[in-house]
Design goal:
Blueprint (H helix, E strand, L loop, with lengths): L5 H5 L7 H15 L8 H17 L2 H10 L15 E3 L8 E4 L6 E2 L11 H7 L4 E5 L8 E7 L1 H6 L1 E9 L3 E9 L8 E4 L15 E7 L6 E3 L2 E8 L1 H6 L1 E7 L2 E7 L8 E4 L5 E2 L4 E2 L2 E7 L7 H13 L11
Parallel strand pairs: 4-6, 5-9, 11-17
Antiparallel strand pairs: 1-2, 1-4, 3-5, 6-7, 8-9, 10-11, 12-13, 14-17, 15-16
Helix pairs in contact: 2-3, 3-5
Length: about 325
């Protein structure tokens, strides 16, 4: 079966901006997330397609290659003669040759910038490890290994099982602990797990480079988490109690009467944990008043009556 076009998957035009790509991904990820569609295999399939499409179109180099060559441009065989990388879903599973993905790894800085392409395979095949075969050499080198992390795993921390296959050294399976609160682009150092040198020279180090997937509705800024909360005119005027999601579960928040749009309500201690500084960030609920798009006749009548009772305008004296 032919693969769907990445732009069609994200429901965006081919000239979409980076911001438009991100907005489309967040909208679809929220709609198709497995937690919202338990047991729906079609939604699960589309969610994985969305993850794959975003991982390509959000990367400038990959997007340019995809625009020129289509899905064939994602085939590693377009760069023959490179190093061999493989991904496996577990012990005894058939290995899938990914060919030359040197843009994903940086051996001692000699292969250019690293990227986050590994997320495609994590999302499609599940929680297995990936196997990489590195070239043998005389000089020990550090290795950068990019991984794609869910927003929640980056916040809470997780453990990754990786398989490293080095020429002449065999395959080694290692577990890497990702600490809570890891940031996008942060590198986790694993001593002695890089490219070994010949003889008795010690091996270089492995650097696990974390790329954090955007969340459907949370946004992280430092150790704080932001959430846009739509409310009605009535809720803003008279006040209300609203159940909000946090990274630790639902919390009930009181909206004070007369709350204007743009108000930030603080949920203390509901942000990102920083083990080094031994502190906890906060969550901020950003209030957004949403009026009815097409008010009914009764709503219009009541709103006009309310306007007649207004004591002046909120703009009075504002610009004088």
């Amino acid at each position: 079966m032919a693969k769907r076009d990445y732009y069609d998957i994200l429901e965006i035009p081919r000239n979409a901006t980076e911001a438009e790509i991100k907005r489309a991904y967040r909208r679809l990820a929220k709609k198709l997330h497995p937690d919202q569609n338990k047991g729906d295999k079609d939604a699960e399939k589309r969610f994985k397609e969305t993850q794959e499409a975003y991982s390509v179109l959000s990367d400038k180099e990959k997007r340019e290659r995809y625009d020129r060559l289509g899905h064939a441009g994602m085939d590693a065989r377009f760069n023959p003669g490179g190093q061999s990388y493989t991904w496996t879903s577990g012990p005894g599973a058939e290995k899938i040759d990914l060919g030359d993905l040197a843009d994903m790894f940086n051996f001692g800085g000699s292969r250019g910038n690293t990227g986050g392409g590994g997320s495609i395979f994590d999302q499609i095949f599940g929680g297995g490890g990936r196997t990489r075969t590195a070239p043998s050499g005389t000089v020990p080198r550090d290795i950068e290994y990019p991984v794609s992390l869910r927003f929640e795993d980056a916040i809470r921390g997780t453990k990754l099982d990786l398989e490293l296959s080095t020429a002449g050294q065999g395959t080694q399976r290692i577990s890497v602990h990702i600490p809570p609160g890891v940031g996008d682009g942060q590198k986790i150092r694993v001593r002695g797990q890089g490219q070994p040198g010949r003889g008795h020279r010690p091996a270089g180090d492995l650097y696990v480079v974390c790329k954090i997937q955007p969340h459907a509705y949370f946004e992280r800024k430092g150790d704080d988490i932001y959430l846009t909360v739509p409310i009605t005119i009535r809720e803003a005027s008279l006040g209300a109690k609203v159940d909000l999601p946090t990274i630790n579960g639902k919390r009930t928040v009181t909206i004070p009467p007369g709350t204007p749009s743009g108000t930030k309500l603080r949920l203390t201690g509901q942000g990102v944990s920083d083990p080094k500084e031994k502190k906890q960030g906060d969550q901020y609920a950003i209030i957004k008043i949403v009026p009815p798009k097409k008010p009914s006749a009764k709503q219009r009548e009541l709103l006009e009556a309310l306007g007649d009772l207004d004591d002046g305008s909120p703009r009075d004296g504002l610009w004088s």
